[in-house]
Amino acid sequence: MILKIVKYPEQVLSQPGEPVTEFDAELRKLIADMFETTYASQGIGLAAPQVGVSKRVTVIDLSMGKEPKDKLVLINPEIISSEGKQYEEEGCLSFPEIHEKVVRAANVRIRAQDEKGKWFEMDAETLLSRCFQHEIDHLDGMLFIYRMSGLKRDLTLRRIRKMQREGSEEHTSELQSRQY
Ligand code: NI
């Protein structure tokens, strides 16, 4: 089932998600729906608060549905180490049409549970590292506009308010492939 993606400034996006304690059929349904929603939106990742569910669940697939082995589910994830810096353009499904450069760690090592509750660790670099950081931020109620410099954030918020005032609809450009 394709879920409705919550857009900024809805409150659920700014509150920390609750840790997952039950690894049950309801969780598996949420995960399946989140993948379906990500693919329908041409995204590469999605966090549960973005579909209005305040839980620490995120799904990621850099192949956008083309490579089954690229499907990743992170439950209760945390970054256990990070190093270096990268400064690349980022987009978010909760901020249609906004693509801005954001500073992130170059490499991260994360720890998370899979959909059965089993803990695992994983290293990531470049885009996957960025995506992990972006999604884990969502689970903490942290949005990518708050990772921008103050000036860039003010300009971006002004653009968002203007688009919302004008009722500008989200478009389906190539750029959307890098939203998460
Ligand atoms: Ni996002």
Question: Would you kindly provide a written description of the structure presented here, covering whatever features stand out?
Answer:
This protein is α+β, with helices and mostly antiparallel strands. Helix content is 26%, strand content 25%. It is built from three helices and seven strands. The chain has helices at 25-40, 126-139, 150-166; strands at 45-47, 57-60, 72-83, 86-91, 99-104, 107-113, 119-125. The strands form two sheets. Strands 1-2-3-6-7 form a five-stranded antiparallel beta sheet. Strands 4-5 form a two-stranded antiparallel sheet. The two termini are 18 Å apart. It binds nickel (II) ion (NI). Nickel (II) ion binds next to helix 2.
Number of helices: 3
Span between termini: 18 Å
Major beta-sheet overview: 5 strands, antiparallel
Strand numbers in spatial order across the main sheet: 1-2-3-6-7
Can you count the beta strands? 7
Order of SSEs, N→C?
HEEEEEEEHH
Range of helix content? 25-40%
Spans of at least 5 consecutive residues whose pLDDT stays below 50 are: none
Q: Give me the secondary-structure category.
A: alpha+beta
- The pLDDT mean sits at 94
Question: What portion of residues belong to β-strands?
Answer: 25-35%
Shape: globular
Query: From the alpha-carbon coordinates, what is the Rg to the nearest angstrom?
Result: 15 Å
Bound molecules: nickel (II) ion
